[in-house]
Amino acid sequence: MKKLWMLALFAVCCGAGVAHAQDVMDIIGYLYESDNSVGVQGFPPSDPGDVMAGLGYVDNISAPLTWSQDDYEYTFVLSDLVSVGQTDLGGGEIQAFYTGGTLDIIAQEYADAGYTMPYFGVDPPDAGAIGSFSDGEIYLHGSFSNFVINFDTTSSVGSFQGMLVFELGTHYSELGQELQNPNAVTIAGVIGSDVDPNVPEGYDLEADGNIYYDGTIPNEDMTWTDVKNLYR
């Protein structure tokens, strides 16, 4: 796994029925909101119409899915999460909901003549960087719903959570009927802001999370008080 600043992962704690959660995959990477060229403000704030996107790596994939790190590099490309604006919760805490959005899990074969080592670039969106993370077969493709970010502007940490519906991909059939259920899969994790020196120039957030199945209660948002308690 590429060495990034590792946040304390609590992704399975962000959903209900965690005792029954089944891990699908783990992700880590960087996010940006809208155009982050020089002089343009990214996240925060999250204004209506701003678009969240991101790039990163998949460092674990669980059964029933199959994978081979010897043969493939696994990456993700997050696109087109549109902000409906942020809500001020007081004390420097904000919450932002998003609509739309997709997540592509990409398998890049090392032996392929066209293999390109992924790079984040600067001041995203960077077409070359996006191309380097999406150059391969679509292992899985999914669409988001109920995506929300909670963020403490004082401590520069927060969380994200949403529902993810996988729709296609070379390994889609391996998910089985249970994991193809449109209310089955949660994506959740923690974020930290670009105050960390390891975050590439122009990216707003580092994200460390996982995708998991919870067959007990498919979706239950975590309160901001619950999130803060995880850091105490």
Features of this protein?
232 residues; 9-stranded antiparallel beta sheet; single chain; mainly beta; 9 strands; disordered N terminus
What's the helix and strand layout?
Blueprint: E1 22-33, E2 51-61, E3 72-90, E4 93-99, E5 102-109, H1 127-134, E6 137-152, E7 157-168, H2 176-179, E8 185-193, E9 205-213, H3 224-229
Largest beta-sheet characterization: 9 strands, antiparallel
Q: How far from one another are the termini?
A: 28 Å
H/E element order: EEEEEHEEHEEH
Shape: globular
The computed structural class is mainly beta
Determine the mean pLDDT. Answer: 81
What share of the residues lie within helices? under 10%
Beta-strand portion reads 35-45%
Counting structural domains, the number is: 1
Our Rg estimate from Cα atoms comes to: 17 Å
Instruction: Please report the total strand number as a whole number.
Output: 9
Tally the helices: 3
User: Stretches where pLDDT falls below 50 for ≥5 residues?
Assistant: 1-20, 216-221, 227-232
Structure description:
Strands 1, 2, 3, 4, 5, 6, 7, 8 and 9 form a nine-stranded antiparallel beta sheet that branches. The chain is globular and about 45 Å long. It has three helices and nine strands, in the order E-E-E-E-E-H-E-E-H-E-E-H. Residues 1-20, 216-221 and 227-232 have low confidence and may be disordered. It has helices at 127-134, 176-179, 224-229, and strands at residues 22-33, 51-61, 72-90, 93-99, 102-109, 137-152, 157-168, 185-193, 205-213. It is mainly beta and 232 residues long. The chain is 8% helix and 44% strand.
